[in-house]
Write a structure and sequence with these properties.
The complex is a heterodimer of chains A (210) and B (118).
Chain A lengths: L1 H17 L4 E6 L6 H13 L17 E10 L2 E9 L9 H5 L5 H21 L5 E7 L7 H13 L3 E6 L8 H7 L5 E3 L8 H12 L1
Parallel strand pairs in A: 1-3, 1-4, 4-5, 5-6
Antiparallel strand pairs in A: 2-3
Chain B lengths: L5 E4 L1 H5 L3 H13 L3 E4 L5 H14 L8 E5 L3 E3 L2 H5 L4 E3 L3 E5 L3 E7 L2 E6 L2
Parallel strand pairs in B: 1-2
Antiparallel strand pairs in B: 2-6, 3-6, 4-5, 7-8
Classes of the chains: A alpha/beta (210), B alpha+beta (118).
Chain lengths: 210, 118
């Protein structure tokens, strides 16, 4: 019995050695950049399912959501990923901001509290990832501390990072501004909402995280 | 004279502190209403700690978080460092204040423009 158990453990070790590890990819970015919209698009395109609800109100995603074993195929190559849709990163959360969207004070304070917990969870996930898709709102200034922090973390860990310059369906978007801010990282201009250029993103995902 | 206290902290002082000491100092001073200018910015790990601790201290009608702005990091990727596989990252000047007091107007690779209110 003891020998069988020992053999079982050895086989488990050998299986682990030869088993190809699935890359765990986090979708990061500031609130309202379109992270969950992108996660939903990826999951829907490759599994037919959805990841979570989206809203105009910031911090709609307040718990990280994980979807395992999403296989993306592009240009003859395929990559299987575990995708983590993370809450929006921020350095400030003011409940008054939620009241501006019509929430009452109690609801707003609860949402703010949950949002702070979500930010902590998102930060902690950075330790357990193999790569990041950083979603930036291409209509906004790219030099935010959130972007600098996520990029700095990935560079320090020497892990792959892909920038999704989102919302190119909007006339004020400027992916070029993001590229000039962070020229050292690959960038794909997309509209997660409209699906514009999404095939190019899948090609880059297969290339960088495969 | 009334005004906002601005503390500029040298790279030498920051180098002598542990990550947690830096984060604690920043939050304590910012909560006292000071604006801090760090000669050299925080490492990515320290930034994570600062964000985490800031989130735990946010309280309605008391503290809504911080505004932190720094230039993108510089990479020391000389031929020799590339050859040795030792590319290092140099963080740069950083400004931190309470979100209620400090508001960034514009920022680019070489300019941080901010408004400070009492």
């Amino acid at each position: 019995m003891g020998i069988m158990k020992s053999l079982g453990l050895k086989f488990k070790w050998i299986r682990k050695l030869f088993k190809k590890k699935r890359a765990r990819i986090g979708i990061y970015g500031p609130p309202n950049a379109g992270k969950t919209t992108l996660a939903n698009r990826i999951i829907r395109d490759w599994t037919g399912d959805a990841m979570g609800s989206v809203s105009q109100i910031p911090h709609e995603t307040r718990r990280a959501r994980r979807r395992e074993g999403v296989t993306i195929e592009s240009n003859g190559s395929s990559v299987t990923l575990d995708i983590i849709d993370t809450p929006g990163l921020a350095t400030r959360i003011d409940f008054h901001d939620f009241m501006a969207f019509g929430m009452n004070e109690e609801e707003s304070k609860r949402r703010a509290k949950e949002a702070t917990e979500g930010v902590i969870e998102a930060v902690k996930w950075l330790d357990d990832l193999d790569g990041v898709i950083l979603v930036m709102d291409a209509t906004e200034d790219p030099y935010t501390q959130v972007n600098v922090t996520v990029i700095g973390n990935m560079e320090a860990r020497k892990l792959p990072l892909l920038i999704a310059a989102n919302k190119i369906d909007l006339p004020t978007s400027s992916p070029a501004r993001i590229h000039s801010a962070f020229p050292q990282h690959p960038l794909v201009p997309i509209s997660a909402l409209e699906g514009q250029n999404i095939d190019h993103l899948y090609k880059e995902i297969a290339q960088h995280f495969g | 004279m009334k005004g906002i206290q601005l503390d500029m902290i040298s790279e030498d002082k920051l180098d002598a502190m542990t990550p947690m000491e830096k984060v604690r100092l920043i939050l304590d001073e910012v909560r006292l209403g000071k604006i801090l200018v760090l000669e050299r910015g925080l490492t990515p790990t320290e930034q994570n700690k600062l964000i985490e601790l800031t989130m735990t201290e946010i309280a309605p009608d008391d503290f809504s978080g911080i505004e932190i702005e720094s230039y993108p990091v510089k990479h020391n990727d000389t031929f020799l460092s590339k050859l040795l596989g030792k590319t290092t990252i140099k963080t740069r000047l950083t400004v931190i204040g309470s979100a209620a007091q400090l508001k960034t107007i514009r920022k680019d690779r070489d300019l941080i423009s901010a408004m400070v209110s009492p």
